[in-house]
Amino acid sequence: MSQEIKGLPKGIRSSAARRLLVVCVDRDDDVGQKTGIQAPVVGRDACIEAAQRLALEDPEDADSNSMFAAIKIYEDLVSRGYGAEVVVVAGVPDRGVQADERIASQIRSVLEGRPADGAVIVSDGEDDESVIPVIQNVVPVVSVQRVVMNVSRSVEYSYAVLGKYLKMVAYDSKYSKFFLGVPGMLLLIGGIGTVMGYTTEIFAVLVSILGAAFLVRAFDVDRAWSNWTKPTPSGFVRMFTTVAGIILMLSSVPAGLSVAGLDIIEQNAELISIVSNRALVGQFVSGMLPILWVGLGTVFAGILLSNWLAGVRHHMADVLRLVVLGALYPTVSQFADVVIGGGSPFTLIPPLLAGLAATTVAAALLFRKFRGKRAAPAGGEAAQVK
């Protein structure tokens, strides 16, 4: 690691300012926060000690390099015959007005014991340089030196990191299945389709496979399925209830069609006319509703049972799913009746309020129960302490 410091202007030799104050600005007070050294730090030896301690506490902090750069500029000025002094001033962690006021106050206190005709500002960025107008109100600023860090072998490190990730993608099965497996399958299918002359059809297949792969990875379907199919009692219960629930939910569609759609299928009616027929839609919903609700209840009950077998202590959310599902059934059933018979929508209010009340009471009871279980160990420990 090396550093570049913009050289002092050559014309400074002929300047009338013979007493210069080299000021290293630390606006966010890293020196005080990380080393405990209170600013201002005055003098070459004190600044070297502060810079060394800051470098040991945080080797990646650029302020230590700025302090060493200020010391180097101080020694350069002394060798040219200037009556120079080096000082490190600091603000506050939050920066802002308080930091600028503190820096100005520190420079005034330093100038009381060591008068100077001008100041050389040393900083590591624009944030520290924003206090230059504040310092100019106290002492003329004759030069501003910015410390620029040059990190060697940065390109080599970047290539090393890139090579590490490429090796991970190529040889780690966790990543290669998606980043190499899916593109490889797409290329293979595309090549076979091109040879066979089914370019248009293969393109549709490739897009479908790519979209399915993105959906599986985006929603963690593969991880969820691997958790459900683990060879444990909870995994088998969750797998069975999930599959059974999905089958029941799918079978609710034929059940709804058997109530409202048998004549429609025979007559080959158009979809728009079916959807616009309120009675048919209501009959379809009413016919599929019981089996659909049983399927959802099977899935939710399986989650509750599998978590219980896995040793999960709190099942409040799992129980509330079943409560909400049961509380919504009367409202949805009444909605289907309203759609079929064209009744008043106000008939939905009683089952809706009843379901809301049941959900609220169940949530309150479950919250009190599980909160009591959490508080019980603390109370037991308190009793033992007594």
Describe the structure.
This protein has helices at residues 30-35, 44-57, 62-79, 96-113, 126-129, 132-136, 154-171, 173-196, 199-218, 221-228, 233-260, 262-267, 271-276, 278-309, 316-341, 349-385; strands at residues 2-5, 20-26, 41-42, 85-90, 118-123, 141-150. It has 386 residues and is an alpha/beta fold. The protein folds into three domains: 2-151, no CATH class; 155-219, no CATH class; 225-371, no CATH class. Helix 7 (154-171) crosses helix 8 (173-196) and helix 8 runs antiparallel to helix 9 (199-218). Mean pLDDT is 78; it is low at 1-7, 10-17, 263-267 and 377-386.
How is this fold's topology laid out?
Blueprint: E1 2-5, E2 20-26, H1 30-35, E3 41-42, H2 44-57, H3 62-79, E4 85-90, H4 96-113, E5 118-123, H5 126-129, H6 132-136, E6 141-150, H7 154-171, H8 173-196, H9 199-218, H10 221-228, H11 233-260, H12 262-267, H13 271-276, H14 278-309, H15 316-341, H16 349-385
Parallel strand pairs: 2-4, 2-5, 5-6
Antiparallel strand pairs: 1-6, 3-4
Helix pairs in contact: 2-3, 7-8, 8-9, 11-14, 14-15, 15-16
